[in-house]
Amino acid sequence: MTGASVALLAGTMSTILFASSALPMVIRAIRTRDLASYSPANLVLANVGNAVHCIYVVHLPPGPIWVLHGFYVVTSALMLLWWLRFHALHRARGGVVLPERRLA
Predict the structure, then answer these.
(1) Distance, CA of 86 to CA of 96 (rounded, Å)
(2) Which of 3, 39, 76, 104 is the most buried (most CB within 10 A)?
(3) Residues with Cβ < 8 Å from 25, sequence gap 6 or more?
(4) DSSP letters of the chain?
(5) Digitized pLDDT (tens) for each residue of the chain, 104 residues in all
(6) Spatial CA neighbour of 70 closest among 15, 30, 27, 32
(7) Residue 15: left if φ>0, alpha if ψ -120 to 50, beta else—which one?
(8) pTM score
């Protein structure tokens, strides 16, 4: 195996591991609609960081980093949008947490 193929394999494996580690958080947010434990400042900073990091990533050759960064961009944006939406719903309902929804 060449150094480049080892790097590609490591990048692919790390992308799968990082994405897999974030999926439970996203699935829980979808099911429960309870994002009260998430910091809005952290969600905003993650999205700003992703936007700035796009400048770096687009100058790299296509590979696992593009997939991982794309995953982070999508999940960070969704989490912020859901936080804003569900926070407004939570406040409108007087602090009542919505029941869990099952994914079909």
Answers:
(1) 11
(2) 76
(3) 79
(4) --HHHHHHHHHHHHHHHHHHHHHHHHHHHHHH---TTS-HHHHHHHHHHHHHHHHHHTTSPSSHHHHHHHHHHHHHHHHHHHHHHHHHHHHHTTTPPPPP----
(5) 787 789 889 989 998 998 999 899 889 888 888 888 889 999 999 999 999 999 999 999 998 999 999 999 999 999 999 999 887 776 776 655 555 555 54
(6) 15
(7) alpha
(8) 0.75
Q: Per the structure block, which two tokens stand in for 84?
A: 């804003």
Q: What tokens does 101 get?
A: 């929804």
Tokens read off for 102:
């099952």
